[in-house]
Q: What sequence folds into this?
């Protein structure tokens, strides 16, 4: 089996329980630190690609080189129909690549939120055996629109578009990879944003601790489905 490529686009947005998944299953994978401009393997040298989030916005003017090349790389993956999973920022980048707008959401989503599968989502292999409603961890202020021909798979109450598919490429707005360490780091860095939503560092950390096992199990199920032929 060729390795799964995990693209890390930001030093503070690591793979979390995605890494746990591959290590526990003894599956080949390679983390590429895109923010350090490490080489991105050719699609034919991979079995799938997972691209993680970033603190940047896709619509920022004068994007840095590593984000520009990520855009080009995702476009190549889409053209070659390589299996691709984009998370948060990378889902927004996928949306941008396929012609959809990315813009600020009406409110930031920070913490755990309930999602709902659409009819297409209930029939999509990525969410096979998922409950129609499930909880995820969110950490974003932007959202994507759904391009013509793409399927909306998951919706949320405070941010409608949460997951979509085009052929072998899927994007999810939420963070399936979250763990307590990552959530604590983000919360401490963005305490003012949390306070604006009536939340605190301690409430976020407690929320993730209370839901850590369920969030990890959901991520493992998602990755099982993603990697199936």
A:
């Amino acid at each position: 089996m060729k390795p799964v490529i995990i693209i890390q686009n930001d030093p503070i947005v690591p793979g979390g329980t995605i890494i746990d998944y591959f290590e526990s299953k003894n599956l080949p994978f390679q983390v590429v630190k895109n923010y350090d401009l490490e080489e991105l393997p050719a699609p034919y040298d991979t079995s799938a690609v997972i691209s993680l989030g970033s603190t940047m916005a896709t619509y920022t003017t004068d994007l840095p080189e590593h984000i520009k090349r990520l855009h080009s790389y995702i476009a190549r993956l889409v053209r070659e129909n390589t299996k691709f999973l984009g998370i948060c920022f990378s889902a927004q980048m996928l949306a941008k690549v396929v012609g959809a707008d990315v813009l600020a959401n009406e409110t930031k989503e920070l913490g755990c939120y309930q999602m709902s599968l659409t009819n297409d989502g209930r029939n999509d292999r990525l969410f096979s055996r998922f409950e129609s409603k499930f909880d995820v961890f969110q950490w974003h202020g932007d959202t994507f629109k759904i391009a013509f021909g793409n399927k909306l798979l998951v919706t949320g109450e405070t941010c409608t578009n949460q997951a979509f598919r085009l052929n072998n490429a899927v994007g999810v707005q939420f963070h399936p990879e979250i763990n307590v360490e990552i959530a604590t780091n983000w919360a401490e860095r963005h305490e003012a944003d949390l306070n604006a939503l009536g939340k605190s560092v301690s409430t976020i950390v407690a929320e993730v601790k209370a839901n850590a096992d369920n969030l990890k199990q959901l991520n493992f199920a998602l990755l099982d489905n993603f990697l199936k032929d």
Remarks:
- The domain at 4-227 is CATH 3.40.50.880 (Rossmann fold).
- The chain has one domain: 4-227.
- Helices lie at 17-25, 65-79, 89-97, 119-122, 180-189, 191-196, 201-227.
- DSSP finds seven helices and nine strands in the chain.
